[in-house]
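Hey team,

Filing this mostly as a record. A colleague (T.K.) asked me to run one chain through the structure pipeline before their review meeting, and I want the input and output archived in the tracker in case anyone asks later how it was produced. No errors, nothing strange. Just documentation.

Input sequence:
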Amino acid sequence: MKGTIEFLKSFATDRDVASITPSSKYCVRKLSEHINFSTTDVIVEYGGGTGVFTKHFLKKMRPDARLFVFETNDNFYDLLNSIDDDRLTVFHQTVEDLLELLPADVVGSVDHVVSGIPFSFFDWEMKIDILSKTREALRPEGSFLAYQTSGHLKDPLQEAFGNFTTEFCWKNIPPYFIYDAVNRVNGASS
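Output structure:
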C-alpha cells in the first residue's frame, strides 16, 4: 500500500511519472520471463519507482549478480535506497549519464536493461541517445526490455537496435507493451 500511495503522490507532483500505480505482479513476472536469472550477472533498471521490479529481481538474482537502478524522483529514490542488499546500487540521476555512472567493468557487459521510464515523453533525439547508450552498455546478445503504455518505441528501437519483439501485458493498470530488443553484434549501428 505504501508503494501505491507514493506513486499517487509522485504522479500528482512529478511530470516524469507516467503511471498512477506501481506495475502489477503479473507484469513483473511476464517481463521477467525474458531473463534467465541463473546466467545473468548484471541488470540495469531505468526508473525503479517503488521497487516492484527491483525487489523481484533481487529475489531471483544469484548472490554474486549486481543490480544498478536509476531513479530521479526523490520519493522513489528514498524507497529504493532503503533496500538493504549489497548487490544493489541506486543512482539518483538520469539514465542519460548511464555510461559515466556505471563501473568501467560493467559497461559493455550488462546482460539486461529493464526500463519503465516513459519514453513517450521524450523527443526523437533523446530516445535515440538513451537507446544508443543502452546498447553500448549491453554485452553482445544482451537485451533491452521496456514496459510502455503504447507502441511509440517501435521506430526508435528499429533505428538503435535493428530488431525488437513486443507482447501485450493487459493485466496491468495501465496495460503495457513489453518490448525486447537484442544487442546483436551485426545489428544496427549506434
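Quick notes for T.K.: DSSP finds seven helices and seven strands in the chain. The beta strands are 42-46, 66-70, 88-91, 110-115, 138-148, 165-169, 176-182.
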